[in-house]
Write a structure and sequence with these properties.
- The chain has about 325 residues and is of the alpha+beta class.
- It is about 40% helix and about 20% strand.
- The protein is built from nine helices and twelve strands.
- A hairpin with an 8-residue loop joins β2 and β3.
- α2 runs antiparallel to α3, α5 crosses α9 and α7 packs across α9.
- The chain is elongated and about 95 Å long.
- The structure holds dinuclear copper ion (CUA).
Length: about 325
């Protein structure tokens, strides 16, 4: 099959333009350090590559000249001393280049491994195919549990503990830091110090099954005040249903399979197999980034999850139109 080159070029250019998920637009201290390595490697390797191509071109042009005029004069055209000097310069360039790359890589690696003082401690757990996020608290009522969203305060280091419940995943927030694997039975750590407010997108970066590509994490870097406001909201138990339809929806939730897998703080629902839904309506997307969080998408997702995310563990819940309407009303009230 023939694929037009322009299409690939357009995809590459457009992908580079997206500032929500790109390592070319660092918004965190660690990403800035990695950016230094990337630019150094690009400069050194690009320079050497250009030199090699220039010499290759020069050699090709030279080789053609004698052929055109008759007998080739191989071996006599360069004087020995010039050749030796050229080779010595070339070797020196290679040694300098490699030494520069090694030193940069070593220094940045040491900087990335430094412990940050007074970090915010967060635990992120990879599941097929969603992210469980838990903020440490001094007492149990200060712990925040959420899913598929990560709020970080500006300029405060966050120490993220990475775990996996099933297979190996990898957390990569390109704007903020490098990637690190989440491995079952092991705890990995990643420090992120955000330096610019904004919304970013993280993506699982290790193939983890059918829906690997649909394992996204919404990342928000908030000012200290905004983060505190979010924290206050997130610590509160779920909103109590206020309308008859919302109350009916809560009843549908508690009487069906939903209650087995999901937690809604302040209710009987305490399942941990699926994402915590206490403040579900405050999230931008659902199903690990597959759908935007709105009524139509939510109803469609509950009625037939396999249609949106083949292989997901979320079972289809068969409901009447009225029940579905009430359930969606209830879930979308959980701000
Ligand atoms: Cu999780 Cu790929």
């Amino acid at each position: 099959m023939k694929r037009p080159l322009t299409l690939w070029l357009a995809v590459a250019v457009l992908a580079a333009c997206s500032s929500r998920q790109t390592m070319l637009d660092p918004a965190g201290e660690q990403a800035q350090e990695i950016d230094v390595v990337w630019r150094t490697m690009l400069a050194v390797c690009g320079f050497m590559y250009a030199l090699v191509l220039a010499f290759l071109g020069w050699a090709l042009v030279r080789a053609r000249r004698p052929l055109a005029t008759g007998a080739p004069k191989v071996g006599h055209s360069l004087n020995e001393r010039a050749l030796e000097r050229g080779l010595a310069t070339w070797i020196a360039l290679i040694v300098l280049g490699l030494a520069g790359l090694t030193a940069t890589s070593f220094l940045i690696d040491s900087a990335l491994a430094r412990n940050a003082p007074g970090p915010l401690r967060i635990r992120v757990t990879g599941n097929q195919w969603w992210w469980a996020v838990e903020y440490e608290g001094s007492t149990p009522d200060q712990i925040i549990r959420t899913a598929n969203e990560l709020h970080l305060p500006l300029n405060r280091p966050a120490l993220i503990e990475l775990r996996a419940n099933d297979v190996i995943h990898s957390l990569w927030i390109p704007n903020l830091s490098g990637k690190r694997d989440l491995i079952p039975g092991r705890v990995n750590r990643l420090v992120i110090t955000p330096r610019r407010e904004g919304a970013y997108r993280a993506q699982c970066a290790e193939f983890c099954g059918l829906e690997h590509a649909f394992m996204a994490l919404d990342v928000r870097v908030d000012s200290a005040a905004d983060f505190e406001a979010w924290r206050e909201r997130a610590l509160a138990p779920a909103r109590v249903p206020t309308t008859a339809n919302q109350r009916a929806g809560q009843h549908v939730f508690m009487q069906n399979a939903c209650i087995l897998c999901h937690t809604i703080a302040g209710t009987d629902a305490a399942g941990v197999t699926g994402p915590d839904l206490t403040h579900f309506a405050a999230r931008r997307t659902i199903a690990g980034g597959v759908l935007m969080n709105n009524r139509e998408a939510l109803a469609s997702w509950i009625a037939n999850p396999q249609a949106h995310k083949p292989g997901t563990n979320m079972p289809a819940v068969t409901l009447s139109d009225n029940e579905m309407n009430a359930l969606v009303d209830y879930l979308e009230s959980l701000q």
